[in-house]
Amino acid sequence: MNRRTLGQGLTVSAQGLGCMGMSEFYGVGDDTESIATIHAALDAGVDFLDTADMYGPFTNEQLVGRAIKDRRDDVVLATKFGNQRAEDGSFIRINGTPEYVVEACDASLRRLGVDVIDLYYQHRVDRTVAIEETWGAMKGLVDSGKVRHLGISEASSATIERAHAVHPVSALQSEYSLWSRDPEDGVLDTCRRLGVGFVAYSPLGRGFLTNEVSNRDGSGERDFRKNHPRFSGEAYEHNLTLLANLEAVAEAKGATVAQLALAWVLSTGPDVVPIPGTKRRKWLHENIAADDIVITDADVVDLEAAIPRDAVAGDRYVAAGMRNLNA
User: Which residues of the chain are under the pLDDT cut of 70?
Assistant: First the structure.
């Protein structure tokens, strides 16, 4: 696995592993297979693991903690705070208060069973709290040795600038793929000007950009995609026509759809690190193989013609979720 650098000195595998779906949102999980998948990722050189306190809620950090218990030195560990949930899973609020920053970090350290978090993200921006207050508390976590690097998710250029003035932002994590290209509207440029790395979540379009129907239709038990506009009704049917275009390109290239979709994200710059999520070793190995695919300029043209930027139907989230993006 090739390696890339986020911000000033955080070196990670060129692909990470998103662990969210192991515990929630993408159907029923299997902890035994999930832990085996994490171990297989580490064995293959994928050392950048991504979780958050809200996944489960709380149980995904515990799962990751069990998986890395004897392999902490092999892992670059990222987790997040800010989407505050209750024990029963209900959503409380987006919380960026300084007191909550410290409380959430201490809780994550306990669940993960580690002494320090390598990359700690503000998961969503709290519009009721000045970003300088939130990041002042986050800087305190670095100063106290609880956290090594700081990141932010789904933030606007202006917010990134303000956070970066308090403490260097090592990474912005936002959705980015062939069918979600919003970061190209200035945010990527801001990251590059400031030296901030970019971590692309859902680089496979929440499983849509794959050859496997069961991975992409969102109709399974406990699958949150069934409520998302892109996976519903006429929008879904329209998006399937775009997928057919991508399948044709993949067949000609001799790769799977997922591999080409990941290779495209990797080709957008050495500062971009996709974190495809999977809870099965089968898909992990398919994703890892994308690291070896050479994408030419002609391939980029073909891929972007297969899924033109403005051709995707439906929003990324339901209306409430959309309001928390680019904050």
Answer: 216-221
- In the block, which residue shows the tokens 């998103």? 18
Task: Answer yes or no: are the C-beta atoms of 96 and 122 closer than 8 Å.
Answer: yes
Give me the phi and psi of 127, to 5 degrees please.
Answer: -70, -10
Q: Which amino acid is at 182?
A: D
Which of 55, 120, 176, 201 is catalytic? The answer is 55
**CA gap 30, 50 in Å, rounded:** 18
Quote the pTM value: 0.96
pLDDT tens-digit series, residues 89-146: 999 999 999 999 999 999 999 999 999 999 999 999 999 999 999 999 999 999 999 9
CB 126 within 8 Å of CB 92? no
| CA dihedral angle for residue 173, residue 178, residue 182, residue 184, rounded to 10 degrees | 90
Angle 157-166/131-143 helices, nearest 10 degrees?
A: 40
Burial 217-245 (b: 16+ CB within 10 A, else e): bbeeeebbbeebbbbbeebbeebeebbeb
pLDDT tens by residue, 66-79: 999 999 999 999 99
Contact 15/287 with Cβ under 8 angstroms?
Answer: yes
Give Cα separations from 226 to 26, 212, 216, 219, 230 (angstroms): 10, 17, 10, 6, 9
209 Cβ neighbours under 8 A, 6+ residues apart: 177, 178, 179, 216, 243, 246, 257, 258, 261
Whole-number Cα distances in Å, 237 to 214, 224, 228, 230, 312: 15, 18, 13, 9, 11
Length of the chain in terms of residues written: 327
Whether the CB-CB separation of 82 and 95 falls below 8 Å is answered with yes
Active site residue 120: no
Helices assigned H by DSSP within the chain: 31-43, 59-67, 98-112, 131-143, 157-166, 187-194, 213-216, 233-253, 257-267, 281-288, 297-306, 319-322
